[in-house]
Amino acid sequence: MLLSVVIPYYHVENYIGDCLEQAAQLEDCEVLLVDDCGSDGSAAVAQAYCTRYPHFRIIRREKNGGLSAARNTGLRQARGEYVYFLDSDDLPQPQALMELAREAKARELDVAKARFVYFDDKTDAETPGPEIEWTDVMPGGELFAQQCRAGKYEPMVWQCVYRRAFLEENALTMAEGLLFEDELFQAPALLRARRAAAYEMEILRYRQRAGSIMNSFSKSSRWCESYLEVCRRLAALAEELEAGEAKRALKKRVGQIALSVAKNIAAYGLSGPVAREALDFVRTHQSELSRYATDSGDAFVAAQGMLMRLSVGAFIHAYSHV
Predict the structure, then answer these.
(1) Helices 245-267 and 286-294, axial angle in degrees (round to 10)
(2) I want to staple 153 with a disulfide (CB 3.0 to 4.6 A). Which of 26, 80, 91, 148 is the partner?
(3) What are phi and psi of 223, to 5 degrees?
């Protein structure tokens, strides 16, 4: 079997049917539907597709654990040569996804990365995602550095197919209990990959909707803690790397993520108690966040880090639009 497609679902009854209708067109694959213990009608939709399509299978978790835990549950039961993580409100492009998986196998890739397109949930209007040019086979660290250098690196795991044996050999799983878990999966996977490549085909339509995880941050400042933990873990990974472009690219990205904790107070449109909580968090961790930026090796990121170290208020005023 070429591909295992892992699709966690939780309270997506209005979207999962569209996702599974596209997934039903995939060939030489298994579709693993991971039930994360929601209370809406998503499970009934998933069951209906399992009845119609023998390559669909439901895996029921005992309790809700969040996206990362559900992805890990699916990964443990995957049997395909390659694995693809798909969110249940997005739309895979079956022909392009299968082409990517076949290319990955033919070129013996550990990671193959492709493009996506945004689409508006209400209007269906599309906006192109970052352009990715076709590459020859290269070490994953080189691909990571190349995309970071071009300003086109995105961390979403559904841009990639991963060789399952490679993930197992490197004990790569999703970081549970955090937001931005993709940052802690895709970068380490690329940096450990001996053979990786990028492709120009669009393998996914990425739904933009009001109720998604990314649009719910205005309700809580929890994302601040996740950003900081991502910085800590990626900074530790950077220390393990040999000197070179990949290490420099990762240190710069850590600095950019650290700055985003303050920048996103405005970017997420926070107000009231949540904004105050986020601001208090930045001030409490001001020294650590600014250090990641000043140690980034990038002059612009380091300058922003120095300003944050001097004054959080001045930093937010000066760079909230960046």
Answers:
(1) 140
(2) 148
(3) -60, -25
Q: Over the stretch 20-59, which tens digit does the pLDDT of each residue have?
A: 999 999 999 999 999 999 999 999 999 999 999 999 999 9
Count of structural domains, the chain:
2
Q: Are residues 308 and 272 in the same domain?
A: yes
Q: Which amino acid does the sequence have at 127?
A: T
Phi, psi of 5 (to 5 degrees): -110, 115
Q: Which whole-number Å values give the CA distances from 59 to 7, 47, 251, in the listed order?
A: 10, 11, 38
Neighbours of 46 (CB within 10 A): 26
For strand 126-128 and strand 196-208, is the pairing parallel, antiparallel, or unpaired? unpaired
b/e map of 6-32 (b: 16 or more CB within 10 Å)? bbbbbbbbebbbbbbebbeebeebbbb
The SS3 of residue 62 is coil
Same domain, 174 and 298: no
Same domain for 11 and 150, yes or no, is yes
Report which secondary-structure segment, H or E, holds 74: helix 67-77
Nearest-angstrom CA–CA distance, 112 and 143? 10
Cα–Cα distance, 231 to 288 (Å, whole number): 10
Q: Which domain holds residue 221?
A: 217-319
Specify the CATH number for the domain of residue 107: 3.90.550.10
Q: Do 43 and 29 share a domain, yes or no?
A: yes
105 token code pair: 């196998």
pLDDT band at residue 79, thresholds of 50, 70 and 90? very high
- pLDDT over 70 percentage in the chain: 96
Convert the pLDDT of each residue in 262-300 to its tens digit. 998 888 778 889 889 999 999 999 999 999 999 999 999
Write the CB contacts of 300 (distance below 8 Å, at least 6 apart in sequence). none
Domain termination site, one of 199, 214, 229: 214
Q: Which residue has the tokens 């966690």?
A: 8
Could you tell me the two tokens for 215? 């649009």
Alpha carbons 93 and 125: distance in angstroms, whole number? 16
The span from the CA of 231 to the CA of 290, in Å, is 11
> How far is 206 from 198, CA to CA, in rounded Å?
18
